[in-house]
Design brief:
Helix content is about 40%, strand content about 30%. The chain contains 3 helices and 5 strands. The chain has helices spanning about 1-15, 95-110, 115-130, and strands at about 25-30, 35-40, 50-55, 60-70, 75-80. A hairpin with a 4-residue loop joins strand 1 (about 25-30) and strand 2 (about 35-40). Helix 1 (about 1-15) packs parallel to helix 2 (about 95-110). The N and C termini lie far apart (about 55 Å).
Length: about 130
């Protein structure tokens, strides 16, 4: 299951970077944890939905992705964390690769929700007005 979700994440990342997918955003803040999430739907009304979210508490970061095939189905989830250590204290390189993949997808989903260049242009314009 995890391998298939990783493959979906890779494909979603490529299609998001190619601007073929549009994500919508939602942010949920609590006092101790900030949670950002982005959602995209595939197909015409068939209900295939991907949700990617990122939460952070202190130095701990968790990125999770959920796939729901249709509204009545149970979602499939995968979760990665930023501290991929083995029991012996060594770094789990596969876990690092997976964390980077899902983090890259999360960042691409975030950027697809607004036009970064347009937003930066507005900020630059406001700064010029100040003098």
């Amino acid at each position: 299951m995890t391998e298939r979700m990783d493959k979906f994440a890779e494909e979603l990342l490529q299609k998001t970077l190619a601007k073929k997918l549009k994500w919508t955003s939602g942010t949920n803040l609590r006092a101790d944890v900030a949670i950002e999430s982005y959602l995209t739907q595939l197909g015409d009304g068939d209900g295939v939905t991907f949700l990617i979210s990122r939460s952070q508490s202190g130095e701990n970061i968790r990125v999770s992705m959920m796939l729901q095939m249709h509204p009545q189905s149970s979602p499939v989830r995968v979760e990665v964390r930023n501290w991929p250590l083995r029991h012996d204290g060594s770094t789990d390189e596969e876990a690092v690769r997976r964390f980077r993949l899902y983090s890259d997808l999360f960042d691409a989903a975030r950027e697809s929700t607004f036009d970064v260049d347009d937003e930066f242009g507005k900020v630059e314009e406001l700064l010029r007005k100040i003098g």
